[in-house]
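Recall that a protein's primary structure is simply its ordered list of amino acids. Everything else, from secondary elements to tertiary packing, is in principle encoded there. The following example makes that idea concrete.
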Amino acid sequence: MNPDLLMIADRDLAILRAFRPHEQLQRELERAIVVSAEALPADVVRMRSRVRYVDETTGERRAVTIVYPPEADAAQGRISVLAPVGAALLGLSTGQAIEWAFPDGSRRRLRVEAVLPPDASAAESGVSDGG
């Protein structure tokens, strides 16, 4: 896959627009290829994906689930898509990396090591995904 290519499911994009994403995330959404959820490859980070990534700037490895803001709970590893890490990872596929500006002024390079598709139990939340 093209290292600069981002993909997003059409229904995720529709919901994300309702949250009025910050400028940096909005730019990424505008350049993403929009496909149906069924057509999105399994190794692409989508909403409610479990993602293992490495911060190549610090060497730190983490596993998080990318969620909508009402579902966020850092203690449980559920990171809002509007948070810097969530916004940076959305749309990337396994092996892809992105350089991202963080609110503290730092720039970090995050690389996706593995993506697990959304778990059916994660869909039981207060946010409707239209499906």
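Confidence is low (pLDDT under 50) at residues 120-131. The first helix runs from residue 10 to 18.
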